[in-house]
Amino acid sequence: MSKIIENRNQGVLGGIDRIKKTFISQEMEESYLDYSMTVIVQRALPDVRDGLKPVQRRILYAMHNLGLNFNARFRKSATIVGEVLGKYHPHGDIPVYDALVHLAQDFKLRYPLIASQGNFGSMDGDEPAAMRYTETKLSKIASSVLVDIEKDTVDFMPNFDSTQKEPKVLPSTLPNLLVNGTMGIAVGMATNIPPHNISEICDAVVSLIDNPDATCEDLLEYVKGPDFPTGGIIYNFKDIKQVYATGRGGITTRAKAEIIENRKGMFQIIVHEIPFQVNKASLIEKVAQLHKEKRISGIKDIRDESNKEGVRIVIDLRKNAFPKKVLNKLFSLTELQTKFHVNMTALVSGIEPRVLNLKVVLEEYLKHRNEVIIRRTKFELERAKARLHILEGLRIALENLDAVIKTIRGSASREKAKINLIKKFKLSPIQAEAILQMRLEQLSRLERDKIENEYKEKIKLIKKLEAILASPKKILEIIKKELVELKETYGDERRTKIVKGGIEKFSLEDVEPDNPCIILLSKKGYIKRLPMSSYKPQGRGGKGVSGCKTCDEDIIDKILLSSVHSTLFFFTDKGLVFSLKAYEIPESSKQSRGQALVNFIQVDSAEKVTALVSITRKEEKENEEKFLFMATRKGIIKKVGLSCFDNIRRSGMKAIGLDKDDFLGWVSPVSRNDEIVLVTSNGQAIRFKEKDARKTGRPARGIRGIRLRKEDRVVSMDVVEKGDEAGREVLVVTQKGYGKRTVLAKYSCQKRGGSGLKTSQTTLKIGNVVSAKVTGKEDTQVLFASRHAQVICLKLNNIPSLSRVTQGVRLMRLSENDEVSSMTVL
What we know:
alpha+beta; Topoisomerase II, domain 5; Topoisomerase, domain 3; 4 domains; four-stranded mixed beta sheet; 43 strands; elongated
């Protein structure tokens, strides 16, 4: 049960005690409510109109009164803090200085409102220097927050001791609440609004002016999402839509990191941007702790190489580490990936705390700007009318100059002259005073013309201002114009990248363009991806350039033309198949060795990848009509539907049944009525139709494709698309770098299982055939790789077209112990 308390107050009359009885519960409720509202309104929450808390507003206004504009000299921060404390904000100096520092930190505000000199803290959580050491002034963009404050655009109120006046809100052309965001904790409520790109917010406001019925979803065409000063990447557009529609929600952000290979062939994770409000020093300490606790393996060293140019955290990885796995582990266990919890709570009309969605925030900003423009226009109109009134008096005086001079000379005193002028010329006291203050130089012809011109200008200005006040449409046009100027002056590129897909389903397809690329695979199982621009065509007979840095006795074994979004199928000599997206292989330089394939697929060390196939996204969708055609070293062939390889396990899947002494060598996609060309080491070739091999299941063995002579083996299989014989040629290359082209028509189509036709002479000088490809009109270049990692790119038309049984010409000059290992056509 609540107790009754007594409040004894000294009465005004005769010292009578007055006792007020009340319940303690009621007293506590009222007192706590008063306290909480004071914290909410006077400290923690920003005003939706200018996006500022009271202390921030007072700091900016005090600096404005001190003349500390962007083109002024810097002043000690202690001077500003003292000015704010003495006139506007009767609280501690530390909170005021902390608020001033926050307005100057470019890693907390997207567009800092205060320019600074000295130590203002860092992303590592370092404290700023004491206020007596640092210097500040208003930044250039702060002028758009305080513009026209002298023109009665906002209401003022008495300060804490009624000796000064301070603004209740600032005029703020800048949509500061969204542009710079804010964070605050009140009693029973909080706010956490992220910063945004000024260009996007200005475009959204202009769009809302043009279309007041626009929805939050319509506005998202302009506002892509938060734009943090520290950059980073935001995932899942659905979360962004929810946040802007409701005013609350979580947005997942990640650091911007890349995997690179250094000159020593070691992989590194480089972090260039970290999530907003993450302490960089604590982040690095956390990574080190996780490594020490062995919760993350594969890290060799971590160091902070950040400087004034930006963030750079370098994580060196061990030789056997899988970079992508390490990076994913870092995302899941550290603040390299965080969730920014948005709570768009702000004060409406300066007193009512509300959770606002995107449209309401912009509408409240427009209401504020509309009121500011109206009040500014009224102020300018009154001033123009006052000046016009004086000019009208001056014109009367100039028209009756002699009479005015005579009246003044005939008056006994200044006051008498003023009264006489008013009576004689029917002037107002203000006009009469202006005439008395005229200087003699204003009687000249030039000065008289100036007064007349100014009179005409004021009449035009008054008409213009009155037209603005009479037309809400013109007021909105002024707001639009000022926003366009704001965007042109301060607009910049986004720092934070937006990825539409959710973080759980995230793949590099969302950020990697589907550009053509080259996949290189070495004999010892090192793989890398190169852009097409890595190799430029050279003349026939050259040495080429270094293709990659390989280990001892390692060679480039496979070259495949692909695209970044394609699916790669890896077929092993034991008849298993693995799949991988091309973008999952890190892009490398020409000289790098690449990365061990076992980091990407679970291939056994005893197995060797003998066939690489690239399937585009379009081909995947048409898998009902597509097949994979396989050939073994012993000439066995097999046709399997592409749909059989839809769900390949990470540990692989059986693709073909093999004899004990045979192994899978080639796989290629085919369509109905295509033709197959098999070429052997001894220079035999056979051409037959794919329909000669019926479709079989994955585990099946296959049938004979070509009859081989003793010690001969298949070295190549290629596909000729249906009805595409014209312009097709067979390109053959031998071990010693010799090769030629032969018209496909010279290879008559046979039934499968025969011995085929001669396609090249094989001698000790040129060696056996190592590879063959069927080329077409669209093929322009060819890449050759040697066992010692030399790679040459030739224009196809530089290779002569010869008959079937010739040995060809030198295509690549090789060192004594080197020989061609693989070839691909571009």
